[in-house]
Amino acid sequence: MIDRRLWNLSHNRVTVSTVGVASRMRDLTRNLPEVNLALSLHAPNQPMREKIVPSAKGTPIESLIEALDSHMMALTKRKLLENPQEDDKTTDFNIEERQSASKKKRAMIEYVMLVGDTSTIEAAHQLGKLCEGRHLVVNLIPYNKTDVKDKLDCPSEEHMQEFRRIVSSYGSFCSIRRTMGADIAGACGQLVVEQEKKQVLDIEDGPFPKDNVKVGRIVATPRRKKASGIDSSSSEESSGKQQPTDRLLHQLTVATAIAASLFVVSASLLVLQKRRR
Q1: How far apart are CA 80 and CA 74, in angstroms?
Q2: Residue 114 CB: number of other CB atoms within 10 A?
C-alpha cells in the first residue's frame, strides 16, 4: 500500500492490526516504524486474555506492551541517536517526548468492551497499570450485539465512561470508539448473514433431488389489459394530445434534412469557386 508504483499511501495512513506476535511486531518497528500499529489486547492480564484469545498462550502480555511501546517511540529514538549530544539517552524518554509520540497515534491498544471480567472496575485499574507511564493510546470498542450462540453484551455508556476515566488516570490516552451502523446491523462485527427459515438454494450448489427442488422458469409477464369500464374517450384525448407533438417532430426532421442539404450544396459551390480562381 505504501509502494509508490501501486497505491502510494502515506505511512501514517496505514495501520497494521495484530493479535500479538512480539517478534513480528519488532520486525515491523525495524522495517517500517512510520506506520501505525494496533494491538488487539481485549484483556488486562494474561489469564483473562488466554480465555478469549487462544493464540495468546505462547506470548506474555508484558512482552506485547513492551513491543508496542518500542514501536511508538521508534522515531523519537532515531532522532535522539542522530543527535550526538543526546547519544547517551537511548532508552529513557521524558513525559514531553512520550506525549508528543502518543499524539501521533502510531501505537494503539484495541480493547473490546464486553459484560464480564474484562470490563470490571478492577480490570480498568489493571489495564491502566499495565500501560502506566507509557502514554499509549487505548481505544475502547463497544461490542455490537449479534445473533450468535454466545449471548454477549456491551456495558452501559456510564460504565464505559468510568472505565475510560480510570485508564486515563494512569497516563494513557483512552477513548471510546464511536459506533456507527448498529441500527441496520452494519457496524463492526455485525456483517453476518442470517439464515432465513426458508433455505435459499443456489443452482451452483447442486445437484438436488428432483422431489425437493422445483426448477423455476423466467416467464415474461404480459401487460395488463385495460379494464372494460374505462371510457374510451380518455384514450382518444391522449392520442389527440400526442398528434401535435408528432407533427412538430416531423417538421423539425424535415427542416434539419433541408438545412443539411443546403450546407452540402454551399460547400460544393465554394470549392468550385476556389478551383476556378
Answers
A1: 10
A2: 18
